[in-house]
Structure formats: C-alpha cells, structure tokens
Amino acid sequence: MIYLTETEVQQLLPMPACVDMMRRAFEEKRAGRTRNQPRRRLILDTGSVLHQMAGSWGKYFVTKIYSSNRKYGVLQMINLLYDAETGKPLAYLEANNLGMIRTGAASGYATDLLAAPDASVVGMIGSGWQARGQVDAMRAVRPIKEIRVWSRKLENAQRFAKEMNCRAVESAEDAVRNAPIVITATSAKDPVLESAWIKPGTLINAMGSNVANRREIPADLMRAAGRVVVDDLEQAKIEAGDIIMADSWANVVELKDVERGHDPARVTIFESLGIAVEDAAAAAYVYEQAVAKGIGRPFP
C-alpha cells in the first residue's frame, strides 16, 4: 500500500486526463459495470460532520472519507483505493486536490457533451477552492476567451481573477448574463441567480449544493430547463437541493444516459453532486501513474 500526498496527487492528475477518466467512468456506469454508494453523513451537535462514500470502477474500488465543521469548513479528504478482485488495499491518497480536480472534470465532461461547441464565455458565481477546478475544466474542453467571476466579497473575486486569469465583476448578473456556460460554485442556501439572466441554450454547471435544504438555482429555472442532468439519480434524491426544493423530477436524466448534443432552444442544467465512482476512476489513474513513475512511499 502506497501513500500519496496532495502535491503528488495534483502532479499526477492533469485536468485533461481527468476529464477523459470521467468519460470512461460514465461509460462504465452506463454499461452497468460500476457500483456507487451515495454519500452518508454523521452529524454531531458540535457542528462537525463525517462524510463517507464508496464506489467501484474497473479493477478498483474506493472509499472516501472526510470531515467538516460549520466553523472551519471541509478538512482533510482521504481516498482509500483497493483492488477489486482481491480486496487488497493499494493506496492511501490525500484527496483534497483529487476531489477538486475530479469535480471540475465531471463538469468538464458534461460541458463537452452539452454546451455549444463554440462557447467561449463563462459566467461564474463563486470564487472558492472548487471554482479553480471548474475554470481549469472549462478551458480543457472549450475555446474559452473570457471568464467573468462574481463573489459576495469583491476582494475574493478580484484575488481569484488575478490568480486564474479571469475578470472580476460587480454583480452576479454581470457575471452570467449572455454567457453560454454558467457555473455556480457556492455554499449558498438560497438561489444565487435569476431566470431572467439566463438565455436559451445556456449550460449551467451547478456544483455547489449537495445538501437537501440548500440550493443555488431558482425553482422556476429548474422546472423550465429542457434537461436537468445528474451524476447519480439515487444520490440526487438524497442531496440534490436544487431539484428537491423545486420538487421537479420530470426532466431529470443521468449523465451516463446523455448523448452528445447542444440544445439551443432550452436551458440545460448539470447538477453535479460528486459521486464515488468519479473518485474511484480518478484515484485509479493516480495510482497507476504513481506505480509507473515510482512515486509514493509505503503506508503506514
């Protein structure tokens, strides 16, 4: 069993490769050759939460464990990778970077399937850790010329814009209006955009809400969308607050069942929850690269 640090994981998992791994993961999911155990949460009165999920892909299975606290946010993520045939533990991966990259890559894969082929402008709401992976993924799959970013704190948006070569704007509307790709990457409890700001043909990657009582997208937009695409329907029924609070399931489909094609007449929403099958595929790639390159050390 090898141990891989955050830095090593980041070096071994470039965004284009991870987007391709998400493609392979959902092709396998479509063929019925994966298993996904939705996230479970142990919630304490102190505000601390233990998050657990598990999934399989190819020759591997993985369990992901991490903690969070309402005061300190998400703490260290851990992925434990196992051999599917023997059950042998293969790798202990520090997984904050892996989680950020694979979450961005899932949006990248959905964007490659569903966004306008010539989409070159991104409107982003949110400038936190996960927003970085979203930016990298959009640039990996589309000829992006401009990314407009808005955050509740202007200084955060400006800092993000400087680091990620984006443009900070003064309102959420300024960020998303007329953008063919929109990303919401927030911790908001209430919607962060309005339907009137979104033009037909837009793809919205909504990745900030994976709690049943929290949402980023207004109910009228969820109901009006031509398609709402989820990475896993079982998990969506537990934690997709955008869909649950809108009580709108008629237009929901799974990413594994989506064919390539842009709908210019209707808004499409990718409700990204982050599932363990994605972790398994990404961790498998990192592990195989580490073994091939002689990176990592014995654990414990």
The tally of strands reads 15
The CATH homologous superfamily name of the largest domain equals NAD(P)-binding Rossmann-like Domain
Which CATH architecture of the largest domain?
A: 3-Layer(aba) Sandwich
* Integer tally of domains: 2
| Category by helix and strand content | alpha/beta
Specify Rg, calculated over alpha carbons. 18 Å
Helices, by number, come to 10
**What share of residues are in beta strands?**
25-35%
CATH topology heading of the largest domain: Rossmann fold
Q: Flag low-confidence runs.
A: none
Which oligomerization state do the chains in this entry correspond to? Answer: single chain
| Helix content bin | 25-40%
Mean pLDDT: 96
Shape: globular
Give the H and E element order. EHHEEEEEHEHEHEHEEHEHHEEHE
Largest sheet: 8 strands, parallel
Taking the alpha carbons of the first and last residues, their distance comes to 8 Å
Main attributes of the structure:
300 residues; 10 helices; 8-stranded parallel beta sheet; ornithine cyclodeaminase, domain 1; globular; Rossmann fold; 2 domains; alpha/beta; 36% helix; 7-stranded mixed beta sheet
Describe the protein in words.
The chain is globular and about 55 Å long. Helix 1 (6-12) packs parallel to helix 3 (96-114) and helix 3 (96-114) packs parallel to helix 4. The longest helix is centred in the middle third of the chain and has 19 residues, at 96-114. By secondary structure, the chain is of the alpha/beta class. The model has no long low-confidence stretch (mean pLDDT 96). It has two domains: 2-99 and 276-298, 2-Layer Sandwich (ornithine cyclodeaminase, domain 1); 104-271, NAD(P)-binding Rossmann-like Domain (Rossmann fold), CATH 3.40.50.720. It is built from ten helices and 15 strands. It has helices at residues 6-12, 15-30, 96-114, 129-141, 154-164, 172-176, 219-224, 233-239, 241-246, 276-293; strands at residues 2-4, 35-43, 48-57, 60-69, 73-83, 89-94, 121-125, 146-150, 167-168, 181-184, 203-206, 227-230, 252-254, 268-271, 297-298. Helix 5 links the parallel strand 8 and strand 9 (167-168). It is 36% helix and 27% strand. The protein has an eight-stranded parallel beta sheet. Strands 2-3-4-5-6-1-15 form a seven-stranded mixed beta sheet. It starts with a strand and ends with a strand.
